[in-house]
What we know:
The structure is a single chain. By secondary structure, this protein is an alpha/beta fold. 46% of the residues lie in helices and 18% in strands. The protein has a single domain, classed as Rossmann fold. The chain has a 5-stranded parallel sheet with strand order 2-7-1-8-9, sandwiched between helices. Strands 4-3-6-5 form a 4-stranded mixed sheet. Bound molecules: adenosine-5'-diphosphate and guanosine-5'-monophosphate. The site of guanosine-5'-monophosphate has 14 residues, from strand 5, strand 6 and helix 4.
Amino acid sequence: MAGLLFILSAPSGSGKSTLVSQLRSMVQDLDFSVSWTTRAPRGSEQEGREYHFTSRADFERMIAADEFLEHADVFGNHYGTARASLTMAAAHKRDLLLDIDVQGAAQVRRNMPEAISIFILPPNPEVLAMRLMNRSRAEGGVADSVVKKRLAMARQEIENYHEYRYVLVNDILEKAVEELTAIVVAERGKTQKESTVDAELLRSRALAKQCLLENSTERLRPVLASFGLSM
Ligand code: ADP
Ligand code: 5GP
């Protein structure tokens, strides 16, 4: 692929969609891969914008035709990234962002180790529960059992945080957006000639560096502990 490939994963309700939409208003030329899913549209979601909504039979036909770069079963529904997303981004030499779960991220990393992976953590289980409940209310109500299932899954997904290059905590939204933007800017600027590096890129590099997994131990320890996990 000619451009950069960014992978973003987070437990459901952590604020990933919110962050992605803010990131895309901050940086140019970043394509978002619209996944395929067998789940029903939620709230104001539109076909072709958040997802391509499809039937199980059609999804399985696409699997058989090897049309997916990766696919996984999440909460009992199929989700997948079409190879076409990658082909399209490569043809236009654009960077591509995948919002996929930990299983899908592992599949992509195996085939494309150069992919830049970012994991987003909610600050603690109480805040995650609140965000899931608020969202479900705003969207006309998802069953409590669905929210409970997503909370239980969160801990399992968070266990995979150490497989990612960068780890962010989405506590204060503005801060998380700033960090995510810095990561994209810093990764893009890696190939830039040192003589052309400006103050903005230096700032982004410094911020992105703080978000590298290896530099995040102290920041992550209390968050992981709140989910009953140790480092
Ligand atoms: P995800 O895409 O990870 O499932 P969403 O982006 O839909 O999560 O966010 C879940 C809910 O949390 C939404 O109601 C959103 O407005 C809210 N939210 C996201 N980030 C923050 C934040 N940093 N502080 C407070 N609320 C947030
Ligand atoms: P939601 O139903 O809340 O939109 O997404 C549920 C989960 O599915 C999230 O963790 C999201 O990242 C993941 N997901 C969305 N699209 C894909 C995809 O194409 N592949 C994989 N593996 N996971 C996806």
